[in-house]
Every structure is written in structure tokens, then in C-alpha cells.
């Protein structure tokens, strides 16, 4: 729906205005969820091998992956999104935002996986090698299954960060939740408080629901005794 076509007659405290424009929030929320999902998946695809390299890689592979991760983690997400869209020229804006958020998430997820891998005792690797597994086989069949289970709590923070950072996609015109809220705010300033409170409530419900889901998943897959 074109926001310029809306008939806006809201006043301060008029929550009915927010309800009447609920489709704006629904569309923005759907886009924020899609951005978060694809960014987390891309971050996992890139971050897991990066974490393995940081834990078990050789001198040269670590020499590439580690500085690259430090550089990405040290760069503001707004700068990464701007570089992806304006400098590199990736289009449409949704794809550029997904790549930027995904790469940045990969840099952080690599540290989640590296920490989880290094928490698996060295004896596990030695035992796997002693029964004839190659180093790659030992990592794949013995270390990673344990490390992945231990990395679940780390995703609570990562999910929350990525979800909130989807609002930065507003800078390149992606009509996620914040952009939709701003469109309403700019057309009816007297309802600004209600509009942004509604957006904040949606963000809270999303993060709370997924965090409770991750906690339930962690309880289900946790290694008994933590060993």
C-alpha cells in the first residue's frame, strides 16, 4: 500500500491509528524476519568453517581467516551495508542487506564455533585419531557434533543482534519494520510515540519468543554433565 494514499486522522494516544495501519507493521515484520533468517543462515554457512579453521587450521589459513574476521567485527554494520550496496553495487537492496548482515554475522559466529570447538577436550581428538580417523574425520564425526551442541547458547545473543541490526537496512531503502514505522511517523507526527512503541513491542516479542525457543533447544540437546 502506498503510504501517500493513506487517510491519516490520528492524534496523540490514538492507538486505533496503529491498529488501522497494522498491515504496514505486518509487512515490515515479515521483511525483518526474512532478513534475519537469511543472514543467520549465511552466517552459519560461512562462520562454521571459519571457526574450524581458527581452531585447527594451518599457519596460512589462519593467517587469512583471523585478520579478516577481526576487520569485519571491527567495522560498523552501517559501513558494511553501505559498501555492499553503494561501492560494490550489489542489488537489489534486500540482497545487499542480507549479504552484509550475513558476512558480519559469520565473523561473530566463527568465534562462537571456535570457542565451542576449543571447549571439547583434546583427548577427544586423540581418541578419534587413535581408532584410525583422519584429522578431518575426527573433526567431523567427533568434535563438531559436540561443539555444535555447546554453541547453541551463543546463538541467543547472535540472533538478537542480527534481528535488531536489520533496522540498519533502512539506510539503503529496505522497507523493513523501522522503515515502515518511519513512513507512518513522517505522515502523522502526532502518533510518533504510538508508532515506535508498537515497533519496539514487535521487536521485543520476536526476540523473546526466539530466545525462549533457543533455550528449549539448548535444554534438549545439551550434553549431560556438560562434558
Structure in words:
The protein has ten helices and no strands. It has 227 residues and is mainly α. The chain is elongated. The protein starts with 14 loop residues before the first helix and ends in a 6-residue tail after the last helix.
Keywords:
elongated, mainly alpha, 227 residues
Topology:
Layout: H1 15-20, H2 22-56, H3 59-73, H4 77-87, H5 93-119, H6 122-130, H7 135-151, H8 154-165, H9 177-187, H10 192-221
Helix pairs in contact: 2-5, 2-8, 2-9, 3-5, 4-5, 5-7, 5-8, 6-7, 8-10, 9-10
Can you summarize this structure?
The chain is built from ten helices and no strands.
By DSSP, the count of extended strands is 0
The average pLDDT value, as a whole number, equals: 87
Helix % is: over 70%
Biggest sheet: strands, sense, closure? Answer: none
- Helix and strand content put the structural class at mainly alpha
Described by the principal axes of the CA atoms, the overall outline is elongated
The total of helices stands at 10
Strand percentage: under 5%
Radius of gyration: 22 Å
Q: How far is it from the N-terminal to the C-terminal residue, by CA?
A: 54 Å
Give the SSE order as H and E letters: HHHHHHHHHH
Detail the poorly predicted runs. none
Amino acid at each position: 500500500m502506498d503510504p501517500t494514499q493513506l487517510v491519516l486522522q490520528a492524534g496523540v494516544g490514538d492507538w486505533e491509528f496503529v491498529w488501522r495501519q497494522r498491515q504496514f507493521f505486518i509487512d515490515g515484520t515479515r521483511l525483518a524476519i526474512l532478513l534475519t533468517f537469511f543472514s543467520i543462515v549465511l552466517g552459519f554457512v560461512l562462520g562454521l568453517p571459519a571457526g574450524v579453521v581458527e581452531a585447527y587450521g594451518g599457519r596460512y589459513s589462519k593467517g587469512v581467516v583471523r585478520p579478516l574476521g577481526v576487520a569485519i567485527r571491527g567495522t560498523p554494520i552501517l559501513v558494511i551495508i553501505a559498501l555492499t550496496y553503494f561501492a560494490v553495487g550489489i542489488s537489489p537492496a534486500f540482497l545487499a542487506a542480507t549479504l552484509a548482515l550475513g558476512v558480519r554475522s559469520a565473523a561473530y559466529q566463527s568465534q562462537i564455533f571456535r570457542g565451542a570447538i576449543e571447549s571439547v577436550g583434546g583427548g577427544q581428538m586423540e581418541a578419534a585419531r587413535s581408532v584410525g580417523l583422519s584429522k578431518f574425520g575426527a573433526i567431523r564425526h567427533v568434535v563438531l557434533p559436540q561443539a555444535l551442541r555447546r554453541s547453541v547458547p551463543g546463538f541467543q545473543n547472535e540472533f538478537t543482534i542480527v534481528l535488531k541490526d536489520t533496522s540498519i537496512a533502512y539506510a539503503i531503502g529496505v522497507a523493513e519494520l523501522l522503515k515502515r514505522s518511519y513512513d507512518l511517523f513522517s505522515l502523522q507526527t502526532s502518533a510518533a510515540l504510538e508508532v515506535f512503541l508498537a515497533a519496539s513491542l514487535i521487536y521485543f516479542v520476536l526476540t523473546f519468543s526466539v530466545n525462549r525457543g533457543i533455550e528449549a533447544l539448548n535444554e534438549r540437546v545439551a550434553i549431560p554433565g556438560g562434558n
